[in-house]
Amino acid sequence: MGIIYLDSIDKLTISPSVATIGFFDGVHRGHRFLIDHVVKMARSSGLEATVITFDRHPRQVLHADYQPQMLSTLDEKLAHLRQTALDNVVVLHFDEQLARLSARDFMASVLLRQLNVRKLVMGYDNRFGHNRAETFDDYVRYGAELGIEVVADTALAIDEVNVSSSVVRRFVESGNLPMANACLGYPYQIQGVVVPGLQNGRKMGFPTANIDVSGTGKLLPESGVYAVRVRLEDNETPLGGMINIGIRPTFNGKKMSMEVHLFDFDGNLYGKRLSVTFYKRIRGERKFNCMEALSRQLADDKRMIEAFLESVDK
């Protein structure tokens, strides 16, 4: 599969294709359901299968104060797309010039002239063009004028819920990781670098690594304690652990943090990049009257999470 970064108006040398377009945040099961249909249509038509996506969320260009809360970084998104049977992934540089294009102009200048799209498959809830003003019927009409066949795809439903990035975000935000992971098709993951913390956990016999995720733009799950697995950058074997997301009210904290305690690990993690995979929220964050009470609760959390992770392995 080829990755094409498009930030100029030059026509690419790309074979005629069946394409779909979208931000594809998370590349969840709904996205892959759509991509599978694109691939099948392409193979039956003797064309290539192409996904067209963007290097940043459009709202980052349209609204200067927008703070991303994404399910995947661009690198993660591309890694997931590489696992599909697509022939091409085109990454458009989203800027103000692109944002100003009407749907028809976008179809004519980008899809047809630059990318050689012959058939466009629209996701069930997807729209594009300046202010997303046009409807699916408009896309069909423009396509007929330009020589691009436009067809609509259906939604993928899990437990009577149509899978979409916004639905997955709601599950993550509410701490419902089992449903989020079911919709994603893989466990939700956040990467970050270990930075110095207050070391309160070490005093209780539960040393934690304070993970800085401020630059990732990734969505944090609801505050609480989670069963996780963690992969160190220099070790492919994941370690079991428990993570607390929140403000640490027992210590009168004010700032949101993400601290993980790794099971069966003793070593220096400062400066290392960790990949945290989330499985289940065990409990909410709460304030304890003393460190002893918190320590007892952490011991209970650890026993519960170790048993849970062992059951996941079976």
Give me the secondary-structure topology:
Layout: E1 2-6, E2 17-21, H1 29-45, E3 48-54, H2 58-62, H3 74-82, E4 88-92, H4 96-99, H5 103-114, E5 117-122, H6 136-146, E6 149-152, E7 157-158, E8 161-162, H7 165-173, H8 177-184, E9 189-195, H9 200-203, E10 209-212, E11 224-232, E12 239-246, E13 257-262, E14 273-283, H10 291-313
Parallel strand pairs: 1-4, 2-3, 2-5, 3-4, 5-6
Antiparallel strand pairs: 7-8, 9-10, 9-14, 10-13, 11-12, 11-14, 12-13
Helix pairs in contact: 5-6, 7-8
Enzyme class: transferase
InterPro entries: FAD_synthase, Riboflavin_kinase, Riboflavin_kinase_bac, Riboflavin_kinase_bac/euk, Riboflavin_kinase_dom_sf, Rossmann-like_a/b/a_fold
Keywords: ATP-binding, FAD, Flavoprotein, FMN, Kinase, Multifunctional enzyme, Nucleotide-binding, Nucleotidyltransferase, Transferase
Would you give an account of this structure?
By secondary structure, this protein is an alpha/beta fold. The protein has two domains: 161 residues, 3-Layer(aba) Sandwich (Rossmann fold); 127 residues, Elongation Factor Tu (Ef-tu), domain 3, CATH 2.40.30.30. Helices cover 32% and strands 26% of the residues. The chain is built from ten helices and 14 strands. A six-stranded parallel β-sheet has the order 1-4-3-2-5-6. A six-stranded antiparallel beta barrel has the order 9-10-13-12-11-14. Helix 5 packs across helix 6 and helix 7 packs antiparallel against helix 8. The longest helix has 23 residues. It is elongated. The relative contact order is 0.12. Pfam families: FAD_syn, Flavokinase. Pathway: Cofactor biosynthesis; FAD biosynthesis; FAD from FMN: step 1/1; Cofactor biosynthesis; FMN biosynthesis; FMN from riboflavin (ATP route): step 1/1. One of its GO terms (molecular function) is FMN adenylyltransferase activity.
